[in-house]
Each structure stands twice: as C-alpha cells, then as structure tokens.
Amino acid sequence: MGLLRIYLALCVVAAHAGVSLLPWPMHDSVEAVQIFFIISGFYMALISEKYKTTIEFYASRFLRIFIPYYVILGIVLIASVVCGLWLGQWLDLAAYVYYSPEKNGLLGVVLTAITNLTVFFQDWVMFVQHDGGTSFSFTTRFVSNASPLYQYLLVRQAWSIGTELTFYLLVPFLGKLKTRWLVVIAIASLLLRIYVYQELNLWKDPWSYRFFPFELLLFVAGMISYRVYARTFASWKTFRLKNLAQYLAFVVFMIFIFYASQKISGHLLKPLGRPYMFLGTYPLWVAAIPFLFHLTRDLKVDRFIGELTYPVYLIHFVVLEVVNVVLAKLSINDHIAVYITSVVSIALSSLLYIAIFKPFEEKRQGFARELSLKWDGLWKKSRNTSL
User: Fold this and answer.
1) SS3 letters for the chain?
2) Full residue range of the structural domain in which residue 354 is found
3) What are the Cα distances from residue 88, in Å, to 200, 320, 322?
4) Other CB atoms within 10 Å distance of the CB of residue 342
5) Which residue of 26, 95, 221, 262 is 20 to 30 Å from 368, comparing CA positions?
6) What percentage of the chain carries pLDDT values higher than 70?
7) 289 with 39: CB under 8 angstroms?
8) Residue 326: inside a domain, yes or no?
C-alpha cells in the first residue's frame, strides 16, 4: 500500500507544479486526495480496534498527525524567513508580510492564522471570505474572491488533514455501527452530494472535494472495504509478496495500473460529467485497496515508502516554492521543478523520518496510553469533585 500512497502524494506534487512526473498524465489532485480518504477509512477501521479506549485512539492520532505537522511547519517558517531576508521572496509568509486592511479584514486573517496551529478547520477556510471592506461571511467559490483567505495558510495542502481529523473524531462511533448502517451513511452522503451538485449547482472547488459531508462517503467506503477484507482473506498466508524481486515486479505492475486507471477516469468525463467522473472510478479502488494491502503487508520496504507519504505531502509545497525561486534567479526553465521538488521532498522526508519520526513512532503508543490514563484520571477526579 505504501507504493500507492507515495504515488498519490506525487500526483499532488505534480498538480502543484503543473507538470507530470511521468511520460503520461498522472491522476488529478482531486482524485488523489479522495483516494487518500478511502485509504484512511480502511486504515482507521484496521487500527481503531487495537485501542482500549476512545481517548487512547484520539491521543494516538493526535501525536501521529501533529508532531510531523509542527516539525514541517517550523521548516516552512524558517525557509520563508530565510528566502524573505536573503532573496526578498517571503514564500508562505508573504500574505502576512504584505497584509493590509484593503486586502482582508482582520477577523478572517486571525481565524485562518489560528487554524495553522490547530490544523482543525483548515478545510473550513475554503468556505469563508473576508475581503477588504466587506464583512466576514460564507462563500460558495473562494477562488473568485479578490484575496482568498487560504493565502494565510502556511501549509496550504494541510486543509485535507483538517478533513481527516474530522473523520478521526467520528471513527470510534462509526466503528461501533453495523455495516448496514455504514452503507446507509455512505448512500446519504452520496445523495447529499448529488442534490447540492444538481439543485444548487455547487460542484466546483471547494465543493468537489473539500466539503466533509460529501467526503464522508469515501471514508466510510474505506471502512466497509476493510470489514469485507477482515471477514474474507485477511488471514490468508498466500498472495503476499515475500522479497524485493517480487516487489519490483509489483512496482512495474502498479505503474501499469496507475496509467490504466487514469485513462479510465478520462473516459468517464463525457458520460458522467466533470462533477462525477472521479466517483465512477472509486468502487474500483475500494475493491483494490484490500488486495494491495494484503500483498504488501509483510514488506518493510513498502512500509518505509508508506511512512514517507505524510511528510512528502506536507513539505513538498514549500520545497516547490524554494525550487521555483532558485530556478528563476538562475534563469533556468522551471519545467524541471517538479523533478527536483520530488527528489528533494523524498530525501528530506527520509531524513526527517529516520532522525525524528521513526524514533518517535516507536514510543507513540506508550505516550498515547499515558495521555489516556492521565485524561481518565482527571475526568474521574473532576466528576468526584462535582459530586
């Protein structure tokens, strides 16, 4: 599964760079993010059963998400300050450096700035506006604003992590539901999407993949996918890759799958239309993800590749910005920026994982258990005091 995850992260890199990494078009960033949501649903159904309490699950997720985020947020701030002082390019701090009331109202900027710390609600930023001289309000199309608030997000792609966090809050409750109720939730989410697309004509960004009630369909589909897997071939010892040679053959096979699935998405444009073309391919991924997980579950190399996905996803945008600035200063065509960005992002992510994230991961479950026990103790103490 690690190979699929890193490919999807690189699809987002390619989308932000505007150039494909491969000789053919890669998956659209919308499709890549939404497949991530399916994978997230699968993994949360897999791991949530291992936690003794809901608080322990939340604590573990908190540490898993926020520690890498804050480390990379620090890198973003340092890179932005260095480039600003040295080259006059403030990168992700530019919106703050050049802020004026004529661009944005203070309330919208402050609220957006807070989401840089909380990560929660970063996806909500895409649904609000506060242009200069207007009031803070809801917007149906943030890209049409004179000065969109997302410019104040320091790790702009982390809006999807905000969506993931909302799902994590629901996992302990969704996990207790029978599968038929998960199916009902998925259908309700799909019908709500169709209604808003068709009746309200709201199907462009941010409604295409940033509105959590719509994306709940994909998270839940991933959970259902895991349940089917757990009840069928999860215990099989066969059909698992055992060595590097088999894995390399699997990589070649997956490259073909990536090519073919991207072509299928393109062919669905005419019959389904832009709002639904990607939805038509997701049942295939829901069915494929359990097999990909089963094939690679015993391979350390695939697990390592998968661990790089999150830091690559978080760090690539600032790397791309720095690369573009340097290439511009050197008068070099920015067509190669996507390749340099991908290599540097993977290299930096590998260093961060080996030096910081992996040692922390080895202790994360213990930390989560300690936090859970402390919270439980404080809760019991507060209840006894109130009584």
Assistant:
1) CHHHHHHHHHHHHHHHHCCCCCCCCCCCHHHHHHHHHHHHHHHHHHHHHHCCCHHHHHHHHHHHHHHHHHHHHHHHHHHHHHHHHHHCCCHHHHHHHCCCCCCECHHHHHHHHHHHHHCCCCCHHHHEECECCCCCEECCCHHHCCCCHHHHCCCHHHHHHHHHHHHHHHHHHHCCCCHHHHHHHHHHHHHHHHHHHHHCCCCCCCCCCCCHHHHHHHHHHHHHHHHHHHHCCCCCCCCCCCCHHHHHHHHHHHHHHHHHHHHHHHHCHHHHCCCCCCCCCHHHHHHHHHHHHHHHCCCHHHHHHHHHHHHHHHHHHHHHHHHHHHHHHCCCCHHHHHHHHHHHHHHHHHHHHHHHHHHHHHHHHHHHHHHHHHHHHHHHHHHHHHC
2) 2-371
3) 44, 17, 12
4) 21
5) 221
6) 97
7) yes
8) yes
Tell me, yes or no, whether 167 lies in a domain: yes
Residues 237-276 pLDDT 10s: 888 999 999 999 999 999 999 999 999 888 887 888 878 8
* pTM (global) more than 0.90: yes
Q: What does the pLDDT average to over 363-375?
A: 80
- Please check whether residue 176 lies inside any domain of the structure: yes
Look-up of token digits 């992510």: 349
**How far apart are alpha carbons 169 and 167 in whole angstroms?**
5
Residue 177 belongs to a domain: yes
